[in-house]
Amino acid sequence: MTKTAAPLRPSREEAEEAIKVLLRWAGEDPNREGLLDTPSRVARSYEEFYEGYAINPEELLERTFSEVDDYDEIVLLRDIRLESHCEHHMVPIIGRAHVAYLPRKRVVGISKLARVVDAYARRFQIQERLTAQIANTIDKVLEPHGVAVIIEAGHQCMTTRGVHRPGVSMVTSRMLGVFRDNSDTRRELMSMLNRPNIGELSA
Ligand SMILES: [Zn+2]
Q: Where are the alpha helices (DSSP H) in 61-165?
């Protein structure tokens, strides 16, 4: 995956003009005092929400540690906060991701796994593709025995509009290598996921 420099990226002024158009479309007067700074605030928010386009997720995983004393068990990072935006309605997808891999030779700093999640989440997404992209990138760069990514998230396009179903969450998973082929490994992962959260217990 390479850096996705959006073709013909508009200027900041053009982006702010577009936000004024949407305000007018909603029925507002963009010149009302309370809204005067809104277009620039929204443009800045967009830089944060969609900063993933400027990040190369593969590069995040390039620094690895090979001296792991033959550690050959599952590494699981669970309950990673996930904030993304639905590409169909441009509204938030909020949830959590669990990322696991079974190292072959190399392990990566755990914060890097969370940053890979962010790099793909901070784009316009559908949850299925987001799940696959995270798993495929870890698989490609680390070449582990297997990768598992599970995402559970609420979609505001479903909770605050349309069918209005608050509380509904969507669960997607992508299992590669041993997590797909070996039911024992998959079962071990599921039991790790179902264990009480040690962080919560000690907090
Ligand atoms: Zn949507």
A: 110-121, 127-142, 156-159
